[in-house]
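Hi V.,

You were right to ask for the full record rather than a summary. Here it is.
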Amino acid sequence: MTLADRQLWDCEPVTRSSAQQGHRHAAGGPTAGGPAGRRPDGKSRWRAFAGRYGWRAYALPALAVVSVLAIFNIGSHRDHPPARAAGSVQPPLSTVASTPVAPSSRPAVSSSSRSAAASSQRTSSSAPASSPAVRVPSWQLPAGPAYSFSASGTFSTLPGTSGVLGKGQLYRFSIDVENGVTGTDSKSFATAVMAALSDQRSWIGSGRVALQRVDSGPVDFRITLAAPTTVRRMCGYSLRIETSCNAGSEGRVVLNVSRWVRGAQVFAGDLADYHRYAVNHEVGHALGHNHAHNCLGNGLAPAMMQQSIGTRTASGQACRPNPWPFPPGASDAPGAEQVGDAADAEFFRRNYA
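Predicted structure:
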């Protein structure tokens, strides 16, 4: 801007006519009805102003309007975020953190899509290492096939006999099934029982015990498959979990059908090994053995540990699951046993929580 322009912009020039008008105003105003004394209207004022300043007369108001609109637009965006589509929700924080998206381009995420994404994250092998793993309690009955929760309360002895297995004191037993139990067939149950007890890693491996299956006559105990309600009646239900037991007063080794068809968490779905464990553990009670609460020297769980509940010892060691009283390589088998309820209660506390 030149000096002449600056003088024209900043200072109103004084002309003779304007001086005369100012004099008239100071003297008491224009005379009534005289043309020389008429006050110029708005249009005349604007024409005079535009005549003096030319294009600048139009630029100044336009600049003011543009400035006001710009200030209004900034304030509007600051106070009111962009509207979100109806029914849309913000994506989970984990999604935003891992895949940043500009707010203007973030798509709406429906509730069902968010649930599917969360489910995918939970099962994805690429989940962050810091994500907490879902811990299933060791005593909880695994998912699996259906079974009968209750049955008749009466029992039938399955036909079948065997020769004497092992050497030592002879124990005769039968294999029974509660009438009305479903979830497994009787023949496969009897086959699994005999496979467990006839193995040299079972109780006959001690050289002091002999077993024989019979289907008539006197027996020392009956190995019985029963429904959970019957097991609870014979064994009690103070712990509120599905277990098997040795009901000595009834002369029955009672195997819970819920565990027979589902197994236990520590066996990780290996039903065959769990069957061997369940038979050997409960028959061990019938032979006079108590519970064991410490690992064998090679880290295996003793057959008399309550592995359906867990394998954690007082020192915090987790024994490896083991179905056999005398597994190979375990010189201290079948393991130290403890008498009394106090040791059992402490074992429950460690593994039940």
